[in-house]
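Show me a record, fold above all:
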Amino acid sequence: MKTGVASLSETNGVGQTSEPWTVLRVMLWSADYLADNGVESARLDAEHLLAHVLGVGRLEMYLRHEHQMQPSELDDFRPLLKRRASREPLQYILGRQAFRDLELEVAPGVLIPRVETEQLVGTVLEWTEMDGRNSLVGLDLGTGSGAIALALLTEGPFRRMVATDTSKVALNVAQKNSVSVGFDDRLELRLGSLFAPVLTGERFDVVVSNPPYVAESDRDDLPPEVLDWEPHEALFAGSNGLSMLRKVVAGAAAVMEHRGLLALEVGAGQAEEIAGFMDGQLRFEDVRVRKDLAGIERIVTGFCSHGRDEQG
């Protein structure tokens, strides 16, 4: 087993050997060190951390394998490596996460966007292409970093998005991301739970959400990166993980345009029940379930059969 990160000294390492700390040597040593501490993506994470310290892209770093790291570079690298070995998520250490075409800021207290949520965005965008509507208004419930709302503004025919969250920390990060992407004038962030911040009479063409859906009974199955670091209020939703999903389905039609789209990300084993609940509301039609890249039923969609057009 590798010794502690102090072994990555500005000298030549344990035993004062003559072998220099080249980028390649540090990369290999660090990958072993992270693996010994239970990090599954040890080599990849070591590469990302090194590239971050060196100020280069990960692929560019491969051209610098023989570069001898300077004492200052090792000083910058060691605490980052130690943080990852403690199972702090790489995204929090680097302060960013790629999401579709975006590079988003992330921070402790904010859920890290995942590839399944990228597919949720893709599902909404496919609908916009088939539907043909323009100048859409969307509602993103539990926006976190703002990933869904900003991706839809970037790639879809949305003129405005409203995004809600109960976390001031999350909304602060989402605001920074909206400014960075250049959509702070088209993304309206509101503090509150689910539909509570929606204004009277406000209607949306799309309601989309990646709400908390982890069951309390699954708590012990989560890796330390998730359980020990990510915000529990963005993860857990009661004994079976369905409470927040049910609230979204129950409240969505009241704020939707007729034939608007409701799109939800759900947990493994939850899609059938949520689709059935959506059907049972008698406010949605053409309810469908989609699988993610791992073959898990992950996305539930339906069209609002009630709404402003029908009521008025």
User: Anything to note?
Assistant: The two ends are 70 Å apart (CA to CA). The chain has two domains: 5-86, 97-311. Confidence is low (pLDDT under 50) at residues 10-16. DSSP finds twelve helices and nine strands in the chain.
